[in-house]
Amino acid sequence: MASLRELDLIRAAAEGDLPRVRKLLDKGAKVNARHKNGMTPLLAAALSGHIEIVRVLLIQGADLKARYKNDATVLILSATQGQLDVVRLLLEKGAQVSEKAREGSTALLAAAVGGHDAVVNALLVFGADPNQGDQNGVTPLLGAVVNGHQAAAQRLLEAGAQANTRASNGLTPLAAAVSQSAELTALLLAANADPNQFDDQGRPLLLLAAAAGEIAVMELLLEKGAIVDAVSTAGATPLMAAAIQGQLAACNRLITAGANVNFAGDQGATPLLVTLVRGHAEVAARLLAAGADPNAQSAGGVTPLIAAAHHCPDLIPALLQRGADVNAQDGNGGTALMAAALTGNAELVQLLVQAGADPTQPAQNGLTPAQVAAIEGHTNVAVLLEQLRKDH
Questions:
Q1: What is the pTM of this model?
Q2: What is the extent of the structural domain holding 219?
Q3: What's the confidence (pLDDT) of residue 5?
Q4: I need a labelling partner for 226 at 20 to 30 A (CA). Which of 35, 57, 268, 359 fits?
Q5: Does residue 225 sit within a domain?
Q6: Contact 18/40 with Cβ under 8 angstroms?
């Protein structure tokens, strides 16, 4: 337990009060006194960047190996704070560049995570291993990229950092870069990072970029050979992801690159179906123009026409023009006309019946479109459907 004088020494070191530090040392304060939280005078001075106090304490025999409460050494803490001059002095005085904190973190990893480029460089000059990760497999390169520090990432790559490492959770530097910027993505790809790797959730990187509408990142991945129809562990392709998010430009780019517009993913849904369900009319129109099947059914029997009747009625004419089956039923016997009745869309009811929809066709529960409209309170539509049923 530190005495009051030694606690005062720790406080003076933290505050950068060199005269008081000298005075307290002259009066016998122990240079390696330790607060109950693990703080020592050297740790306190180094954290705050008080280089002259650090120098004095080292001359007086301060312990370079003293560790703070998380088991981090003075070198690691100084690197975390970006204290370049302190880091250099500590290394010159014999601090071990490869020493680790409790979780396996090194000074280089700490500096990379913090984006302290000059400290990263200094540690590399003193022999720090650019590929030494922590207990979770997080390397300095991954730490830099995750936090968007391009200069630090570039320096690490120049020093031999491996671009295709994977942390224990499955995350790679390139996967992190794709979510950060085109610049970081280009940097990793130039270092031979694999454009066809998957992220920690089993998604191809092209899918991530497509879903976010990051066209520049997509271009970089495609240029390096990313597979345009790579399938995630959840059964989705990049085009599927872009369609779900309504990313028209991304869909355009993928279609141009040869993406399969009729790929059936999870539950048999196609890009056209999923984008219609979400009301993305422009994307749906582009997919139709590219040859998407207007009659492809999901595992539940839902067709693009039924989905459009619910969520995107303006696209019904285009679907009908391309041969959509107006009387196709889903797994519950529902039709596009049933959807129009359910939503009370009289104009759509007229359009569908004119296209050949059967107003007498019941669902599996036995209800006709007219009855559904009546139940939902759409009296005018119910009357219209009843008349159309009689005229059928």
A1: 0.88
A2: 177-258
A3: 80
A4: 268
A5: yes
A6: no
